[in-house]
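Teaching note: in complex prediction, the entire set of molecules is handled at once rather than each chain in isolation. The prompt given to students was simply: 'Predict the structure of this complex.' The entities are:
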Amino acid sequence: MEGPYPSKQVIEEAAKRIAPFVHHTPVLSSSSINTLHGMDLFFKCENFQKIGAFKYRGATNAVLSLSNEEKKNGVATHSSGNHAQAVALAAKINNIKAYIVMPETSSSVKINAVRGYGAEVILCAPNQQAREGTVDEIIKKTGATLIHPYNNYSIIAGQATAAKELIEEIKNLDIIMTPVGGGGLLSGSALSAHYFSPQTTVIAGEPANADDAYRSLQKGEIVPENPPSTIADGLLTSLGDKTFDIIKKHVKEIVTVSEEEIIAAMRLVWERMKIIIEPSSAVPLAAAIKSKERFKGKRIGIIISGGNVDLSKLPF
Amino acid sequence: MEGPYPSKQVIEEAAKRIAPFVHHTPVLSSSSINTLHGMDLFFKCENFQKIGAFKYRGATNAVLSLSNEEKKNGVATHSSGNHAQAVALAAKINNIKAYIVMPETSSSVKINAVRGYGAEVILCAPNQQAREGTVDEIIKKTGATLIHPYNNYSIIAGQATAAKELIEEIKNLDIIMTPVGGGGLLSGSALSAHYFSPQTTVIAGEPANADDAYRSLQKGEIVPENPPSTIADGLLTSLGDKTFDIIKKHVKEIVTVSEEEIIAAMRLVWERMKIIIEPSSAVPLAAAIKSKERFKGKRIGIIISGGNVDLSKLPF
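The expected output is the structure of the full assembly:
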């Protein structure tokens, strides 16, 4: 069952619960990128997390929070990629069955990785309705517990632990930036900043070609995603009511960026830092670079959400 | 002027001399690669070194060892890439002039990086003769000191410090592996193992398409490189007499690998470890994988020589 609203204590407990299972990822800096753009950037490298993305934090917290009764029937979810691998591995480690619904357009690297963790993969049409419908059917048939990729308090509390670690390691951050897709990482990071570093502002980056979160925050209510078209394939989903409520309260601003800006930021990190980040992870850096006049001299933590890319389909 | 033969004390002094200027790079492991191939691999990540390669160690040691008189006339060298950047940056930091001869086939990324460090770049035909001839001319004209990319004891002592750090951090290594091109990294690593961890065997990986070191070691004398044709563009050069003498004495074996094996090893590191390594760096890993039956269960340190790749020309 899903846990309670992520209070300070709930996030602290999630951090303790998942600590034996997740990597405490490093925070890296690049003096050449800092000099180039006039900001002090601190990259929390969740691309080095297990399964190559922060999603393993939320999935681990959600799976470990299940009752024994629930564990018997397994877990189910839908995901375009990283959450799928995260749930599959978290389930495998706990010896429970996982049913993963993936859009048939997912990269073969991601589908194979999920199967490699022993999960059952069910492919569906690449839209929200087909994904949710297929998961509902599976749950009816198997009694599995749904682990929603983001609109779930146990997931949000798990994702919050990345920003919590960043705050503990790097003092006096002016800003924390994350990408926003469904809003799990953003809402969790915003709560961690609120509880553990209240003077830090939280700002998201979002692809202009998938800007539902930007428009939702402007309008004050959830605006559904237009058919998104972005290289940042982790950010195709729409906000949920739980993530949006937190984002409305605790996120100051969403900065939208073009595809060209995303690719340039991704390339900058690959070339200067020699680490592999996926396009979604380049979105908050692109947003910081776009805002560099305003952000001049600021200490900015950026959560690098993941490093799972299909090397056969690079944008360079 | 070039320093003395790299004794234990000379390497210890080089380590102290360059310590304030170079990164103490991390040693990373990948449980998934270890499981996949049945070895315990420890990667010394010189791709995170300044200028993105171990070459900065040797260049820094050579530049810092110059007399004040020599510093006035500047330094000159020829290099297909990383050594060029290394000498350029080491010279810049010491406020001395650098003349860098580069083959006209060098990647634009590398040429621009060298110019970015304020060095004067002189392009020449892509062969050893043209490179050496052009450098000779420059030295005659300017009085600059030659910093040979590998056949130079100050360079060898500097490169030796990477293996020294690896040995200090990871105890009881059975094997240390490096790539071999001109032999600077290999000879330095072999000396560090000999002095600081004599029970550790040193083995090199070399592209079969540029196997002069393999053939030289077989024959007991330097065999010139056939026109090399390999993606491992850091390994196109031939051994020098100084590096060969050390390699003959202290290197047990050279394992040659195909282009396909190099690309597969490179891709494995990119996908599983989320770090960017250049093709030359994948050569010792490819050699370890090729030898995995023999190396089963061994503790193997691999020096990841660099991470400078032209992202527009990837082999995936």
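Point out the following to students. Chain A touches chain B at residues 47-48, 52, 109, 267, 270-271, 274-277, 307, 311-312, 314, 316 (CB under 8 Å). The domain at 56-146 of chain A is CATH 3.40.50.1100 (Rossmann fold).
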